Amino acid sequence: MPDDLLERALRARGMKSIAGIDEAGRGPLAGPVVAAAVVLPKAWRCDGLDDSKKLGAARRERLYERITADTRVRWAFAVVDADEIDRVNILRATHMAMARAVEALSVRVDHCLIDGLPVRGFGWEHDGVVKGDGKSLSIAAASIIAKVTRDRLMLEFAREFPQYGFERHMGYGTKLHLEALRVHGPCRLHRRSFQPVAQLALSFDGA
After folding, report:
1. Mean pLDDT by groups of 10 residues along the chain of 207 residues
2. In sequence order, what DSSP letters do the residues of 12-67 get, joined into one string?
3. How many CB atoms lie within 10 A of CB 118?
């Protein structure tokens, strides 16, 4: 389970405001990538908080409400849509979302803990923490906010584009989604730089 050892070590070095950062949606064929940044108060606890990928949707929603309802917690998120992903590539889009989330925080950040590898050219001092959503409380909290925010967006898109079944797969390349793509072709939410969307888009655009 994640703990606050990394945050405490940074505070011992004089850093007061430490943002945990994580993203959701790097792998899907459709929809945005969402990043969240969270600054937790000292000695903050939240029972059951863990890497969002290990938790069911209902539990993630409960944790999201607990995190965001706590007025001591500072949090923000940023969304990069499919068009921008296609323009700059998914890695750069993810890093852009992370930076925008930190910029949107209501506090000045002294240091960031980013889930994964360090980010070259990131605008804040930071450490990359591989599998950080299972190690750091602030990264785990960010993973919950990013995942729940993205899932809520995909549920809204499911009402706009019911033929794709986004409410069931959240844009990931499941058998159901691939079949819908073959029948209907891609919509504006699909990442045309991703295979097999790119090939299917050529087929429909050329039809």
Report:
1. 95 97 98 98 90 91 96 98 98 98 97 97 97 96 98 98 98 97 95 91 57
2. HTT---EEEEEEE-SS-SBS-EEEEEEEPPTT---TT---GGGS-HHHHHHHHHHH
3. 11
Domains of the chain, with CATH numbers?
Answer: 5-160 (3.30.420.10)
Angle at 93 between CA 89 and CA 98, to 5 degrees: 155
**Token pair recorded at residue 33:** 């990538």
* One-letter amino acid of 31: G
Predicted TM-score of the model (pTM): 0.94
Other CB atoms within 10 Å distance of the CB of residue 167: 14
Residue with tokens 């910029």: 103
* Listed residue (12, 6, 18) closest to 75, CA to CA: 18
